[in-house]
Amino acid sequence: MDLMGAVELTIGLKLAQGREAEVYAWNGNAVLKLYWPGYLGHIAEASALSTLQRSGSTAPRLIGAVEIDGRHGLILERLEGPDMLSLLQRRPWRMLGLARTLAEAQLLIHGVQAPEDLPDLKQVLAARIEAGVESAELRDFSLQVLDPLPAGDRLCHGDFHPGNVLVADSQVSVIDWTNATRGVPEADFARTALLLAHGEPPPDTSRLFRTLLSAGRSVFARAYARNYRRRTEDPLKQVRSWVITHAAARLADGIEEEEPMLIAFLNDARRKAMH
């Protein structure tokens, strides 16, 4: 075990588990995010969190790093409050206010210059499209759409949605920075717009909330987009092209419930581009 800093090793109860990592209580006021073997998302997450701390954080404070049994881990500030997705389930009447909060939090992130060691978003998308799109026609089309899009130097979260935003009173914190990249705000905005409109909710989502989601997600997505556009200093450009490339890259996640919709969307976009 390699421990950076003078933090006593005290792993508590497991708090959560996902595709990338497990989260444990750590010394009472912190958590340990312990990544699965072979997963290297801790590099981007640590870089993004360090940058955000210097610029006025909208994210948990990075306390240190560990390596336990060959697994990388980050020690993070323990935050209180539910995530925005849980709030929407319990208090759907707050939908419009939470959509505004979501847009404001993302705008703060996009105001931050990304560290140079983060991956370039266009390169990440190209690799994911190559890996995830089986159809040669759709793969070539998506890469052609991606190629002329601009690079950028803004901090992009890469998976910004209500499930990754914690809300406690007036305090908002964005978690899960393993997909952080350098890019243009439009690209990150497009990813969020795609997830809000078509993303599959977590498996443990209740049947009632799935019904509410199908009825209200378009209202929430439009309110988020409207608030983002109103508050950004620069008009958003080429958003549809970014949505196309993110839809193609999303296929690399292997979410079976989403694949028919994503493929239909890409086929429709390709048909329109040919006419």
Structure description:
- By secondary structure, the protein is of the alpha+beta class.
- It has two domains: about 1-75, Phosphorylase Kinase, domain 1; about 85-275, Aminoglycoside phosphotransferase (APH), C-terminal lobe (Aminoglycoside 3'-phosphotransferase, Chain: A, domain 2, Alpha-Beta Complex), CATH 3.90.1200.
- About 45% of the residues lie in helices and about 20% in strands.
- It has nine helices and ten strands.
- It has helices at about 40-55, 85-90, 95-110, 120-130, 135-145, 185-200, 205-230, 240-250, 260-275, and strands at about 1-5, 10-15, 20-25, 30-35, 60-70, 70-75, 155, 165-170, 170-175, 180-185.
- The protein has a six-stranded antiparallel beta sheet, covered by helices on one side. Strands 7-10 form a two-stranded antiparallel sheet. It has a two-stranded antiparallel sheet with strand order 8-9.
- β2 (about 10-15) and β3 form a beta hairpin.
- α4 (about 120-130) runs antiparallel to α5, α6 packs across α8 and α8 (about 240-250) packs across α9.
- The longest helix is centred in the C-terminal third of the chain and has 25 residues, at about 205-230.
- About 40% of the residues are buried.
- The model is unreliable at about 1-10 (pLDDT under 50).
